Amino acid sequence: MIWVLGLVAARPNWPIMVPFAILLVAIALAPLIAQHHWQRHYHQLCVALAGVVCAYHLFVVPQTARVLHASIDYVSFMVVVGSLFVVSGGIHLRVKGPSGPARNVLFLFFGAVLANLIGTIGASLLLIRPWIRMNKGRVASLHIAFFIFLVSNIGGALLPVGPPLFLGFLKGVPFGWMLQHCWRQWLMMVGFVLLVFFVLDFINLRRHKRRTHESELTSWGCDGGHNFVFLFVILAALIAVPVGWRETVVILTALGSYLGTPKRIREANNFTLAPLKEIGWLFLGVFGTMIPVLEFMERSAGRLGLNSDLAFYWATGLLSALLDNAPTYLAFFAAALGLHGLDLNDSSQVARFISENGRELIAISLGATFFGALTYIGNAPNLLVKTIAEHARVPTPGFVEYIWKFALPILLPAFALVSILFFSR
């Protein structure tokens, strides 16, 4: 593809982009080939690589403003993600089972909607354990795969309350812009995937005799329901509170939720800060090392062959699947702005770009949010869900099985349909 060849050919200051490549390769492969060493030393690698890049931009170039922008974006990102994580950890859903295909479809649709309200990370952590419990006795790999498709990725394409869209919100994309312009694409994708799931889950149900009686499992219920109020306070703060005050309100809301939730509820959710700690270290490395990558994308978009909505959609999507959709989204957003001579760090220029070239932003946003479901490394919640499922001792697709058995045959046709219907003109 032209944009791949251009990416290789146009490499200003390419040595300082090497730490970014090292980090993404490590995130993708190290947990698979050296899991023990990765778990012990990944935070050191993130700090070292980010430190090298930041030191270069502070003392060698110098470009202090870029380091400052990256630092502010990282803090804002972690405040929102961390607060949603803490508040959602105080809600324990009790579900009734065993469940059939129709009830499973309704649950996944609810999860897709919820992913827009509390973020894909929060929704994934809140719903994965109830999802496993309600399918007790017949949980299969397809249940984990489709949960990742809908709750951890595709569902969260409408509101910027988590990665990757929150990064665009930080740069000046209006809060409800994606909801206004992308609800049709979202509805088509969610409907297509749910239809495929219903057929496969119906076949799965016919193959497995139910090993539990409905009376053996708990009834529907919710402990810690008051935390939904805290979630909507955070949502309101993201919409209405100005930058600076917004982070303070969000942190105080999460603190109020944590102090006001009985310990037994968090224990029922097996709540710990370990997943949040891991995300914090990894994204410290990502935000630090991607500074020169954003600069490169701004200057080189014309040489990458990114000259249409369709090109932005597939280029952003495929790299989001191979890397991580949050930095990929921001990189291609910067490339689109650079193509028109605009600066990602100037909110007035971002507003101008949105008003004049909104279709490009739609393509980038949908490519990043949808294609993050193609691999376990495409989006932060994917590996969290996989880890929780494995600890629950339920069938979980391996790295290759997930891609070849589920992601490629089910998602690629849907992605192609979106590109034909919405980006072919």
Q: What's this, in brief?
A:
This protein has 425 residues and is an all-alpha fold. It has 19 helices and 2 strands.
Structural overview:
The chain is mainly α and 425 residues long. The chain has one domain. The protein is built from 19 helices and two strands. The protein has a two-stranded antiparallel sheet with strand order 1-2. Helix 4 runs antiparallel to helix 9, helix 4 packs parallel to helix 10 and helix 5 packs across helix 8. The longest helix is centred in the first third of the chain and has 34 residues. The protein is globular, with a radius of gyration of 21 Å.
Q: Identify low-pLDDT runs.
A: 1-11, 212-217
The largest pleated sheet is described as: 2 strands, antiparallel
* Overall form: globular
Number of domains: 1
- Helical segment count: 19
Beta fraction = under 5%
Q: What is the strand tally?
A: 2
Order of helices and strands: HHHHEHHHHEHHHHHHHHHHH
Radius of gyration computed on alpha carbons: 21 Å
What is the fold's blueprint, element by element?
Blueprint: H1 2-9, H2 18-33, H3 35-60, H4 64-88, E1 92-94, H5 101-134, H6 141-150, H7 165-170, H8 177-207, E2 221-223, H9 227-240, H10 245-259, H11 263-268, H12 274-289, H13 291-300, H14 309-322, H15 325-339, H16 347-356, H17 358-371, H18 380-391, H19 399-422
Antiparallel strand pairs: 1-2
